[in-house]
Design goal:
This protein is α+β, with helices and mostly antiparallel strands. The chain folds into two domains: 192 residues, Roll (Pnp Oxidase, Chain A); 109 residues, no CATH class. The protein has twelve helices and 14 strands. Strands 3-2-6-9-10-5-4 form a seven-stranded antiparallel sheet. The chain has a three-stranded antiparallel sheet with strand order 1-13-14, with no helix packed on it. The chain has a two-stranded antiparallel ribbon with strand order 7-8. It binds flavin mononucleotide (FMN). Flavin mononucleotide binds next to strand 3 and helix 2.
């Protein structure tokens, strides 16, 4: 690994490493008004949700790199304490990019970008009609993070009203494919959060988990089992007790032993059928006190693929018992 001490690099290079690695970042499209009522619109990808109760979002209008001056969004927010924050969709990305131009403070980025201002209910800055999720916000805290070029200023804003386009809802929840937001990576790269880019990882169901530390090393080193298989084992709520495993093992044993010459053929056939239960019975028949082997890895793989994690753990426990 290349070792980097940020204090020994020019800030612009530190910035490039950070934004290259920490991404995709959500993008806030922030509308503000100056004390004189002039509209301003700019995107900020140093952005996230920080509290649902109270609902607080944060974004960081940094100081300009060329002269350390503060951006219009910062000035307007501090002066008026109000903004609207909207998410950025794939369809809006290029217009939003226009709004990021360092125009003079008097220039209206709504006009320049062609994005449509929509009156807000509770704050003066308008919302952006093209965004399917718009938030009316009040500044809660502005936290300066430095006074140098590209130093950040963390604007924490309380969301006082949200507007959701109903077409992005499925069963009352925002559907990622419908909202079709984009994220910012380093350089000029963006990520479109839809299609194959979206996948699900269900949250652990229980408040306990066996954990990686109980997975035998031989399985962790396995070429067959992936991080997914190991994670499913680790997430299982608890190890089966010794007594449970003993009884289960007796039940799994079938009386008539399989002849040595038939076993390999049968093994292949059962494997083709993904019949991990019979495969394990075969292991027990051919070897009265089996150890962790390639065969067990195969059984564990098939059992986990079939979401039968309990079976996988019992099989592992059988083979770990002395
Ligand atoms: C997608 C995108 C994300 C950006 N994120 C940030 C950011 O997090 N912080 C920042 O200071 N500037 C960011 N910028 C640059 C600002 O949008 C740009 O400096 C803008 O002119 C600021 O406008 P203002 O002076 O009207 O506030 C980003 C630009 C783009 C295109």
């Amino acid at each position: 690994m290349k070792m980097i001490d940020p204090q020994e690099l020019p800030p612009a290079q530190v910035y490039r490493y950070m934004v290259g690695a920490i991404g995709p970042r959500p993008i806030a499209l922030v509308a503000t008004c100056s004390a004189d009522g002039e509209r301003n619109l700019a995107p900020f990808s140093f952005f996230n949700v920080f509290s649902p109760n109270p609902p607080v979002v944060g974004f960081s209008p940094c100081r300009r790199g060329r002269d350390k001056t503060l951006k219009d969004t910062y000035h307007n927010l501090v002066a008026t304490q109000e903004c609207t924050v909207q998410v950025v969709t794939f369809d809006m990305a290029e217009q939003v990019n226009i709004a990021s131009t360092e125009f003079d403070a008097s220039v209206d980025e709504f006009q320049k970008s062609g994005l449509t201002p929509l009156p807000s209910d509770l704050v003066t800055p308008p919302r952006v009609q093209e965004s399917p999720f718009q938030m009316e916000c009040r500044l809660q805290q502005m936290i300066p993070l430095g006074d140098q070029a590209i130093s950040g200023n963390l604007a924490l804003c309380e969301v006082i009203r949200m507007h959701v386009d109903e077409s992005i809802l499925v069963d009352g929840l925002i559907n990622p494919h419908r909202i079709d937001v984009v994220g910012r990576n380093g350089q000029n790269f963006y990520t479109r959060a839809s299609g194959d880019a979206i996948f699900e990882v269900p949250r652990p169901a229980a408040r306990t988990a066996v954990g990686y530390e109980h997975i035998p090393q031989a399985l962790k080193d396995s070429q067959l089992l992936t991080a997914h298989h190991l994670t499913q084992l680790a997430l299982f709520p608890e190890l089966p007790s010794e007594k449970t495993v003993k009884t289960w093992k007796e039940g799994m044993r079938v009386s008539s032993p399989v002849a040595a010459e038939v076993a390999p053929v049968l093994w292949e056939e059962l494997k083709q059928n993904k019949d991990y239960q019979k495969l394990f019975q075969l292991i027990l028949q051919t070897d009265p006190s089996p150890l962790l082997t390639d065969e067990l890895e195969c059984v564990v793989q098939l059992a986990v693929d079939a979401h039968d994690i309990e079976f996988a753990w019992k099989a592992i426990a059988c083979c770990s018992q002395t």
